Amino acid sequence: MQSPPLRDIAVIAPNLKRRLSGVTTTVVRLLPLQAGMIGIVATGPGLPAQLPHLALWRCFLVPRDRWRVWHARRNTEMALGLILRHLFRRKLKLLFTSAAQRHHKGFTKWLIRRMDRVVATSPQAASYLEVPATVVMHGVDCGVFEPAADKRALRRELGLPENACLIGCFGRIRAQKGVDLMVDAALALLPERPDVQMIFTGRVTDDQKGFFEEQRARLTAAGIADRVHFLGEIDWDAVAKHYRTLDLFCAPARWEGFGLTPLEAMASGVPVVASRVGAFEALIRPGETGTLVPPGDAAALTEAIRDCIDDRVRLAAAGPVARAHVEANHRIESEAERLVAIYREMLA
């Protein structure tokens, strides 16, 4: 995608992190949509070449012919926006998006107080802020995340069991994501349900290798390791395909900023069991699109999964309801439009 001429740039979205993260993914997903509505560019490392982009050094030389919005999502990006405005005299209106569901540290509070506008990604995140905030929840691309036309054929293509009841849990392999709680559930449920299997996707970082090996050892000792599949880190298209193969998705994180995986699963026509962290309470309708359980509660997670997989008719019926819920309430197009409206208000 071609970047707009410098004079037409109205919004700059910095991404000051090389490694892929949830924030980076948000920028990558939103910008192509927003570029059709307003002159917007990303800046910083680690971004796909096809995004409209402004070299970071050029931000220090942006003409002072008009006001522009600087949309920060990290502390470093707020700080750079302040430097550009006050030291380099760039005409920038500063916007910050907060996803954190915790009390901010002193430096972060200081930065936030100096923003012209603040957005929170959920009502829960807004409750931790000491300044007024507009809630704009994340959305997902319902064209990328959609139900499978033929689930069995897709499983066959991906080398997954065609006739199993398949439970998924996607994200980095670590305790924060509740992977050990899923293993607890597998140990309790799988021995008596030979048709049930689990798949995990996500990277195992060096500091989590011991944790990962411990979980594998527990499954091996119980004789069910061949029915719990750790697929490692897979590319974006493959992740979307794997969602479509599932009968049930689980997001048992102990804490979370926002957490997109339940939305991605529901958009794929898959009901969800999730912990009450991040924005999950605002995303999931208990009894309709999924179930919520207390964070860190292995027994409650196990019971919720049992209720789902032991009533396959109800489980199958929940998928279309989950898809319809996301289409009606959580499309990424709506997120992009609401943010662009805020940009226009700030520039008016």
Keywords:
Rossmann fold; elongated; 13 helices
How does this structure look, described?
The protein has 348 residues and is α/β, with parallel strands linked by helices. It has 2 domains: 6-139 and 331-347, 3-Layer(aba) Sandwich (Rossmann fold); 151-329, Glycogen Phosphorylase B (Rossmann fold, 3-Layer(aba) Sandwich). Helices cover 39% and strands 15% of the residues. The chain contains 13 helices and 12 strands. It has helices spanning 22-34, 75-86, 106-113, 123-126, 151-158, 179-189, 209-221, 236-244, 261-267, 280-283, 298-309, 312-329, 332-347, and strands at residues 11-14, 40-43, 68-72, 92-98, 117-120, 134-135, 165-170, 196-201, 228-230, 248-251, 272-275, 290-293. It has a 6-stranded parallel β-sheet, sandwiched between helices. α1 crosses α13 (332-347) and α6 (179-189) crosses α11 (298-309). The longest helix is centred in the last third of the chain and has 18 residues, at 312-329. The chain starts with 10 loop residues before the first strand and ends with a helix. The mean pLDDT is 93.
Number of helical segments with 4 or more residues: 13
Low-confidence stretches: none
CATH topology value of the largest domain:
Rossmann fold
Rg from C-alpha positions?
21 Å
Distance between the termini: 27 Å
- What shape does the CA trace take? elongated
**SS-derived structural category:** alpha/beta
Mean pLDDT: 93
CATH hierarchy class name of the largest domain: Alpha Beta
- In total, how many domains does the architecture comprise? 2
Query: What is the name of the CATH architecture of the largest domain?
Result: 3-Layer(aba) Sandwich
Q: Report on the biggest sheet.
A: 6 strands, parallel
Number of strands: 12
CATH level 4 superfamily of the largest domain: Glycogen Phosphorylase B
Q: Which range best describes the helical content: under 10%, 10-25%, 25-40%, 40-55%, 55-70% or over 70%?
A: 25-40%
Q: How are helices and strands ordered from N to C?
A: EHEEHEHEHEHEHEHEHEHEHEHHH
How would you write the strand order of the largest sheet?
2-1-3-4-5-6
Indicate the proportion of strand residues.
Answer: 15-25%
